[in-house]
Amino acid sequence: MKDTFIEMMREAAQLQQGNHTAEAIAAYQSIVTHWPKLADAWYNLAVLQRQALHIREALTSYQMALNSGISRPEEVHLNRGVIYSDFLRDYPAATRELERALTVNPAFTPALQNLANLYEDLGMRPEASSLYARILAIEPRSFEALARLAYLQPVGEVNRSLINRLRGALKLATSTSDRASVGFALGRLLDAAGEYREAFTIYTAANQASLASAGPQVVPYDRARHQTFIDRMIRSDSRRTTVHAAAIPPRPIFIVGMFRSGSTLAEQLLAGIPGVAAGGEMDFLPRIVNSEFVPLFETLETISAEQLDGIAARYRAELLRASAHAAYVTDKFPDNFLYLGLIKRLFPDAKIVHTTRNPLDNCLSIFFLHLDQQMSYALNLMDIGHYYGEYRRLMAHWKTEFSGDIFDFDYDALIRAPQILMQRLCAFLGLEWPGQLPLIAARNVAIRTASAWQVREPLYRTSSGRAGHYADELKELRRYLDGLP
Question: Please, which contacts does 228-232 make with residues 24 or more away whose CB atoms are closer than 8 Å?
Answer without folding.
Answer: 230/390, 230/393, 230/394, 232/297
